[in-house]
Amino acid sequence: MTARIGVVTFPGSLDDRDSRRAIRLAGAEPVALWHKDKDLKQVDAVVLPGGFSYGDYLRAGAISRFSPVMETIIEQARAGMPVLGICNGFQILTEAHLLPGAMLGNDHLHFICRDQKLRVENAETAWTGDYTAGQEIHIPLKNMDGRYVADEYTLDMLEAEGRVVFRYLDFNPNGSLRDIAGITNEAGNVVGLMPHPEHAVEPLIGTGRTDGLPFFTSILKKLVTA
């Protein structure tokens, strides 16, 4: 029996179906989860997808953080369940305090959409085991509020503990401090990043590469060997 990975749909989610497709391509069973339901349907892991939940009112992810489903996800994540937040999902994870720091508007004040080069900094999380540290990959990026910020103490802590998972290369697209594109919690089960790996799982779409697929194969291997 394969692993079951839930994908939450919030009002304004855009990439929930893409995430479910990526999970299916990796060989796991995608499970649709609704933001108003606390029941996670016995999934083994959860993806919070990209989009503009609740129209990004107040702050990106600020309202979604209080959706009923998040109550269960926060509890389960703290107990060790793997959770991946992509773009808006990353914003929700910071608002829910499952990851430190915050997301602000891009420093150039414009929406950006491009293929982004990244360096893998940590290949030991639940979602990055099929990468190697130092590997350079290309993942689509699309955001308006993608600038990762935190105080110097938090940034130094993330660096010292190896919790920066991805870093922007060649070009910082949004002004994120220390070129941070993605981070993890201390346990390594919760990962958030701004680029969209679900858009780089087939050679005919996205970057024309499959650099995003290892996110989903990594978690599948982690779950089936647990």
Spatial extent as radius of gyration: 16 Å
Largest sheet: 9 strands, mixed
Number of domains: 1
What percentage of amino acids are in beta strands? 25-35%
Strand order of the largest sheet: 2-1-3-4-11-10-9-6-7
Summing up helix and strand content along with how strands pair, one would put the structural category as alpha/beta
The sequence of SSEs as H and E is EHEEHEHEEEEHEEEH
Q: Helix tally?
A: 5
Mean model confidence by pLDDT: 95
Spatial separation of the terminal alpha carbons? 13 Å
The number of strands is 11
> What level of helicity do the residues show?
10-25%
The CATH topology = Rossmann fold
Overall morphology: globular
CATH architecture: 3-Layer(aba) Sandwich
Structure description:
There is one protein chain. The chain has 226 residues and is of the alpha/beta class. It has one domain: Class I glutamine amidotransferase (GATase) domain (Rossmann fold). The protein is 23% helix and 25% strand. It is built from five helices and eleven strands, in the order E-H-E-E-H-E-H-E-E-E-E-H-E-E-E-H. Helix 1 crosses helix 5. The longest helix has 12 residues. It is globular. It starts with a strand and ends with a helix. 52% of the residues are buried. Part of the FGAM synthase complex composed of 1 PurL, 1 PurQ and 2 PurS subunits. Its main location: cytoplasm. It is found in: Cytoplasm.
